Amino acid sequence: MNNMKNNKNMKNALKWAVVLAVVLCLPNIIRNDYWMVVFVRVLINIVLVLGLNLITGLIGQMNLGSAGIYALGAYSSALFVKNTGLSPWLGLLVAVVTGIVIGLVLGYPSLRLKGVYFSLTTIGFTQVVQIFLNNMTKVTGGSQGLKSIAPFSIFGFQFDSYIKSYYLYVAFVLIAIFCAVRIVNSKWGRLYRSLRDNSDAVEMSGINIADVKVKAFIAAAIFGTVAGAMYAHFYGYISPSTYTVDISMNFVLMLLVGGLGSVSGAMFGAVIVTILPELLRGLGNYYLITFYIIIFLGILFFPNGWVEAASRPIKKIIAKRKKEESASGEK
Amino acid sequence: MSTMVFQLLITGIAYGMIYSLVGIEYTLIWNSSGLLNFSHDKLITLGAYIFGGSMIIKMNLDNPIAIVLTLAIMGVVGALLAAGIFNRLYSMRSNIFAIIGTVVLAKIISEFIRLFWGSGNMRVSGWLDKTYFIGGFAITSANIVIIIVAILLVAVLEVFFKFTKTGKAMRCVEQNKKAAALMGININRSICITTALSAMICAVIGFLVIPLVNISATMATTIGLKGFCSGVIGGFGYIPGAIAGGIFIGVVENLATIFIPAVYKDAVSFLLLIVFLLIKPTGFLGKRAQGR
Asked: Which backbone phi and psi does A154 adopt, to 5 degrees?
């Protein structure tokens, strides 16, 4: 038994090692600036979706306000760095604080209630954020956006090229994955899942549901604002038109494509939903409608995510073989 | 001053009526199938494009014929959506799939609109664009028509739900699906009819907002979201609540422009939404704040 567990751990570690090796070699295989930007976007999206997974994937509360969180993260970090001239790392810290504030202010009113209220409030929040970013011209630059935001740097080493930023963001994503895995597999992660499955039973056990949800939302918001800061310091330019309700929906799509509730699923979804449209660009005018139809059919027929759908037949075969083996062993 | 307040009040009521209609349209689907239809704003846009883009601008039809044809097409679209997609979505195990299903549907519809009618804006000239002066007040014909049509539509719906067999069956499905099925009501058919009705109301909203905004792919986004706000503020899943909430939002956001810059007008209704969730989450007419 112990042996089998070790074996499984080994296999898992091997899988992750292969993925990491591919990720690290990618810039050397594909020497193309366009694709490097796409890959960095994938990395940023992974960070955000890992956060979204906590609240939407595990607890099952539909957060449609990712765009607002993302925007506030980007703007808070960028404005801080631009106005004080301090390091972007401090900007990142400001973004984290912003995340905590959003989690408290938005989570408290909406998560006390069940059902769709949370989705509607978060949409409203995104709209309000966008309206204010667009119209507070003196502070945010209005619809013109903010230009020339400093990139990250360590001791004078500037992460100013695509490849340098790529490697930095791979490190960010690794930290994010570490945090997400720790949360999902902890007491909190189990609590979140039980909330999704039967919140009444959790409440009966003497747990303050609203409090747990608000904490999960704070964590999700921190992931979101950090992703926003990553976006701002990579592109060096942000404008309110990026942060529409549409991209919030896209983030939830990533989660669904990968399968709700798992860290690797969230990552897989972020990769697919970011890269697939780029691959379909050859279809010209029809690429977006093709992409959405593919996603739509996926939701209708594989509601547990594509990974699960693809691995189901394989699992069936393995289970069948095991059954046969045990049957022949009994004889 | 009082003239301005009066005019803002009229505009507010007219906009409020539109939010109310949006509220009614998605509440119908929510009550019958438990689906929150996030593609409703694209259905409104689709209605406006079929009416303005095809019937009036391209084919030069008379207004009444165009209206009837558009309503018929949208009714069919609604029934097909329900039969093919919504009936599948509402029986899924988590409402996240259902919501996201309608979200992706919205994207598909808007891409279809872009491919079929192009991405430019359209303007329908001669459709409800007169302005009347009554004793010093300027009132646009659009506002008058919106108010009249909305009141008529609510009255017709009331009669339909109270006095026809189909309407009664739809109310039964809303209250208790199992019992309704046991009484011999075909639930899937009932949901089809409800969705068709909802799509037709979307088309009516589309006709009514053409004079207020240009026909474009994003013309109904804000209106659709504010429709959701009106539902929460009035009482979610309760049609009189949606009507009251819609008118409340419309009037408050228009009167608010007296005190705040007009660019922040759109933020008012969303802030109201958050305030209501804090103070009175059931809305001011809602008795039941239940989640699904």
From this structure: -120, 120
Closest CA to B218 of B120, B129, B102: B120
| Domain chopping of chain A, boundaries | 33-244
A258-272, pLDDT tens digit by residue? 888 888 888 888 998
Contacting residues of B for A115, CB less than 8 Å apart: 290-292
Record the tokens describing residue A201, joined without a space. Answer: 């039973």
Find the residue in B nearest to A285 (Cα). Answer: B115
Instruction: Find the Cα–Cα–Cα–Cα dihedral B282, B283, B284, B287, rounded to 10°.
Output: -30
Size of interface A-B (CB pairs under 8 A): 118
C-beta of residue B46 within 8 angstroms of C-beta of residue B114:
no
Mutate to test the interface with A, among B29, B94, B233, B273 (most CBs of A within 10 A): B273
Q: At the topology level of CATH, where does B2-279 sit?
A: ABC transporter involved in vitamin B12 uptake, BtuC (1.10.3470)
Q: Is B256 on the interface with A (CB under 8 A)?
A: no
> Is the complex ipTM more than 0.85?
no
Q: What is the pLDDT of residue B287?
A: 61
**How far, in whole angstroms, is CA B240 from its chain's centroid?**
14
Question: Regarding predicted confidence, which is higher, A291 or A4?
Answer: A291
CB-nearest to A256 from B97, B105, B274 is B97
Read off the pLDDT of each residue in A188-206 and give the average, rounded to a whole number: 86
Domain boundaries, chain B: 2-279
pLDDT of residue A124 exceeding 60: yes
3-state class (DSSP) for residue A142: helix
User: Residue B140 — φ and ψ, nearest 5°?
Assistant: -80, 150
The residues of chain B scoring below 70 in pLDDT are 1, 93, 286-292
